[in-house]
Amino acid sequence: MKQSLNRHSSMFLMEIMIAILFFSLVSAICLRIFTASRQMGQDTNDLNMAVNQSENIAELLTYSLKSPESSSMDMKGTSGFLTSEYPDIAVDGNCLTIYYDASWNCCTSGNATYYIEVRKTQEESLCVFCIDAYKTSEIKKPVYSLNVSLHPPLHP
Q: Would strands 90-92 and 114-123 be described as parallel, antiparallel, or unpaired?
């Protein structure tokens, strides 16, 4: 009788161990799903903000070329319109760099989590601006890229 009771309690203990193992596996899978969804949400937010900021820059560049005050076709002349909106802009040849913090507010390069590079090229009679948004931790792969081709007006 005592051996029968021992066998039942060891079976019960095995069932409890299997149940705990099963729930541990399920909770690990659920935790992985939640962390993946959080990362996807952050990536979506980054993409959305990169699109908004890139479009804002594209609109300012469009305005800067159409403005009668803009007689210069180089980046120094173009950056004049952008400095009112982005005071910490960095100009290096044909490349502008605008830095952003984690909340996508303009900041200096030392506090940057994101940055947008604007490169200008001349193709025949077109001004082509390549606007690339990057995360500072992932320099090789842009979060978003936008190419803007504009016909500069002839100023009298």
A: unpaired
Token code pair at residue 74: 């180089």
The residue ranges of every structural domain in the chain are 2-150
In 3D space, the residue among 50, 52, 59, 53 whose CA is nearest the CA of residue 144 turns out to be 50
CB-hemisphere CA count at 13 Å for 39? 6
Q: Which tokens go with 134? A: 């990057």
pLDDT tens-digit profile, the chain (156 residues): 455 556 677 888 899 999 999 999 999 999 999 999 999 999 999 999 999 999 999 998 888 877 666 545 556 566 667 777 888 888 888 888 999 999 999 998 888 999 999 998 887 778 889 999 999 888 788 999 999 988 877 655
User: Using CA atoms in the order 42, 43, 49, 54, what is the torsion angle rounded to 10 degrees?
Assistant: 160
CB neighbour class for 152 (10 Å; exposed up to 12, middle 13-18, buried from 19): middle
**Predicted TM-score (pTM) above 0.85:** no
Distance (Å, rounded) from C-alpha 103 to C-alpha 113?
Answer: 9
